[in-house]
Design goal:
Blueprint: H1 2-22, H2 38-47, H3 49-66, E1 71-77, E2 82-87, H4 89-97, H5 108-111, H6 115-122, E3 126-129, E4 141-149, E5 155-164, H7 170-208, E6 213-218, E7 223-226, H8 228-234, H9 238-242, H10 253-263, E8 266-274, E9 279-290, E10 296-304, H11 306-317, H12 333-345, E11 352-355, H13 362-371, E12 380-384, H14 390-398, E13 399-400, E14 413-414, H15 416-419, E15 424-428, H16 435-447, E16 449-450, E17 459-460, E18 464-469, H17 473-478, H18 484-490, E19 493-496, H19 507-522, H20 531-539, H21 545-559, H22 597-611, H23 616-623, H24 627-637, H25 641-644
Parallel strand pairs: 11-18, 11-19, 12-15, 15-18
Antiparallel strand pairs: 1-2, 1-5, 3-4, 4-5, 6-7, 6-10, 8-9, 9-10, 13-14, 16-17
InterPro entries: AAA+_ATPase, AAA_lid_NorR, GAF, GAF-like_dom_sf, Homeodomain-like_sf, HTH_Fis, P-loop_NTPase, PAS
Protein name: PAS domain S-box-containing protein
Organism: Alkalibacter saccharofermentans DSM 14828
Length: about 650
């Protein structure tokens, strides 16, 4: 089998080299033949926005597994154009010296044999190492790449991880393939969710139309019926409007008609209406009425106030806060003082800066502050400044105008500040925001206006800003990575959340809460914890804070036993934690060498295997996971079932 795999590998490398010679790629080449301009790249990023935003967390997770080992992770589009890159500084510097940057094409025609370009050609996950690369400068690297496909099976991108040749490992390709598969599943889920949201939008529009203005007209613009609500909205008597042509009321009539004819409907478009006294803006949805031959005969036009339309969108897209202060668990005196302070400042118009380590509940507090304020019925919009690629964060925050660039949506795209108008915007990981965007953010805070990309006009917004960070912004300011004036504008009402090791007395309370909630959710038994074990848990430093504690309890419930905790008492000073569980892909990992939760999981699997004399089916049943899942874990952890039989 191994010899067959090697032969197959030699086969696709040989075919790739032959193609490169036919493309006349020079082995001495250093840069890709095709590197697009920043303007062209911006258009690429917008076209691939959904792919980039979906892939970004998985790229972060993939990089976290190899961080510090001289690797970097790359995402390309379906043509091999680099969209996003992240990795270790040393190897990234080398890559950038070879212009492996966003906008560079990594297909075989432009840069020869490499995992990204060859995976595009072969349409399968593959690995290219050392001299298998066609150009000489890549001989010191190894790269593993896997296609990302749409739900229709079409390749829409490539995920790649590249490092030095001496670090080559067959498992690296498996990691990349698993990550690309996870991205595909997430994209498919999002597609189904969008379809459901569209259906719900239609139903909501019908229900809400009772409170809306409804007008029907034929394709020649003759107004047939007018609801009383529409007449009142426009400032006319119903009979007066019937004597008008629709374009005498609706400025964008031709656009509305063509949209319905071409696409079957028009949903939630802001339009201008000429009322008796002045020009008003409403939100319009339009639907066709077909005759017996299936041809459009009339149109139904549903007008709503813009604010109501935004609330409908907020409802559909989940732009609301769900947490309140009464859902925050804790009895520690200092922690309760923080809660009381947060309640007092909730109704203030001043900005809030929430500081605390990862996993302390910063967004939970942000939502609670919003729900305790007079803005509770208005939108709550959250954006993670560290999770969105810097090329996209500007359009995410501020939006773009119609025609701002090729491929832009015809209606433009509102930014998060517009969507949050009247409510609260939560800027998580504010310390990761690029300096140039910090300047724009400062202007929005100071002037209360926002301008879309490609627009001239300023839009007035009434938004309360809550920012959060796990960094010391004073240090970031001193190092020139964060604007001092922005820091002072955000730090008006500072809320510092204590780490879990600063409120150890709350650990039993939190464990009890998580144990009850998780066991009920998973329909499993609660796990008993002795007094001695609880003391050990209280001694542990919990670098991942409440999030890590919750993961630990969930792991316990899943495995129906408390993982070994003797290792905990030594503690850990590492503040960086990530999340993981049985049956899920969340790893709670500590980078300073302490035993990790995945190691606990490995030991527990071995223990259960021993009890079941190496029987995989019985072990999977006992662990509460599927056999295929267990087989994957056995492979990942290098567990040999034959060695566990007793």
């Amino acid at each position: 089998m191994l010899e067959q795999t090697i032969d197959q590998q030699k086969d696709y490398i040989l075919k790739s080299h032959n193609r490169c010679r036919s493309y006349q790629v020079e082995p001495e080449r250093v840069y890709s033949r095709k590197i697009i301009t920043q303007e062209e790249l911006f258009e690429k990023l917008e076209v691939n926005r959904e792919l980039i935003l979906t892939a970004s967390p998985f790229m972060n997770q993939l990089y976290s597994f190899v961080k510090g080992s001289g690797f970097f992770v790359i995402l390309t589009d379906d043509e091999g154009c680099i969209l996003s890159v992240m990795g270790d500084e040393e190897i990234l510097s080398e890559a950038f010296a070879f212009k492996m940057v966003p906008g560079a094409y990594m297909d075989e025609r432009n840069i020869g044999t490499n995992a990204m370009g060859t995976a595009l050609e072969e349409k399968t996950p593959l690995q290219v190492s050392g001299e298998e690369h066609y150009i000489n400068v890549y001989h010191r690297w190894t790269c593993s790449a896997s296609p990302i496909r749409s739900k229709d099976g079409e390749i829409i991108g490539i995920l790649d991880i590249t490092g030095y040749s001496e670090e080559v490992h067959s498992h690296t390709l498996g990691m990349v393939a698993a990550a690309s598969n996870a991205i595909e599943k997430m994209l498919e889920t999002q597609s189904y969710a969008k379809a459901l949201a569209d259906v719900k939008l239609y139903h909501e529009a019908i229900i809400d139309s009772i409170m809306a203005g409804i007008v029907t007209s034929d394709l020649e613009g003759n107004i047939i019926t007018v609801s009383r609500g529409a007449a009142e909205m426009f400032g006319y008597y119903p009979e007066e409007i019937k004597n008008l042509k629709i374009w005498e009321v609706l400025n964008d009539w031709e656009m509305v008609k063509s949209q319905v004819e071409e696409k079957g409907s028009l949903i939630e478009r802001d339009v201008n209406v000429k009322s008796r006294k002045n020009k008003l803006q409403f939100n319009l949805s339009a639907y066709p009425i077909n005759d017996e031959g299936g041809r459009i005969s009339n149109l139904i036009l549903v007008f709503k106030e813009v604010k109501k339309a935004r609330k409908l969108a907020d409802k559909l897209m989940g732009r609301h806060a769900i947490y309140t202060f009464d859902k925050i668990i804790g009895r520690d005196e200092n922690f309760l003082r923080v809660i009381e302070f947060a309640k007092k400042v909730a109704d203030s118009r001043s900005n809030v800066l929430i500081m605390g380590e990862s996993g302390t509940g910063k967004e939970l507090f942000a939502q609670s502050i919003h729900n305790h304020s007079e803005r509770e019925r208005e939108p709550f919009v959250a954006i993670n400044c560290g999770a969105i690629p810097r090329n996209l964060i500007e359009s995410e925050l501020f939006g773009y105008e119609e025609g701002a660039f090729t491929g832009a949506k015809a209606s433009g795209h509102p930014g998060k500040f517009e969507i949050a108008d009247g409510g609260t915007i939560f800027l998580d990981e504010i310390g990761e925001m690029p300096l140039d965007l910090q300047t724009r953010l400062l202007r929005v805070i100071e002037e209360g206006t926002v301008s879309r990309i490609g627009a001239v006009k300023e839009i007035v917004v009434n938004v309360r800003v809550i920012a959060a960070t796990n960094k010391d912004l004073n240090v970031e300011v001193s190092r020139g990575r964060f604007r001092k004036d922005l820091f002072y504008r955000l730090n008006v009402l500072p809320v510092r959340l204590p780490s879990l090791r600063e409120r150890r007395s709350d650990i039993p309370l939190l464990i009890e809460y998580f144990m009850g909630r998780i066991s009920k959710k998973l329909n499993k038994k609660r796990v008993a914890i002795s007094e001695e074990q609880m003391k050990d848990l209280e001694k542990y430093s919990w670098p991942g804070n409440v999030r890590e504690l919750e993961n630990y309890v969930e792991l316990s419930v899943n495995t129906e036993s408390l993982p070994e905790i003797a290792w905990i008492s030594g503690g850990s000073r590492n503040e960086n934690a990530q999340e993981v569980n049985l049956g899920q892909v969340r790893l709670s990992a500590e980078e300073d060498g302490c035993l990790k939760l995945e190691q606990i999981e490995r030991e527990h699997i071995v223990k259960v295997l021993n009890l079941n004399k190496g029987n995989v089916s019985l072990t999977a049943k006992k662990l509460g996971i599927g056999r295929n899942t267990l087989y994957r874990k056995l492979e990942n952890y290098g567990i040999d079932c034959s060695e566990t039989r007793r």
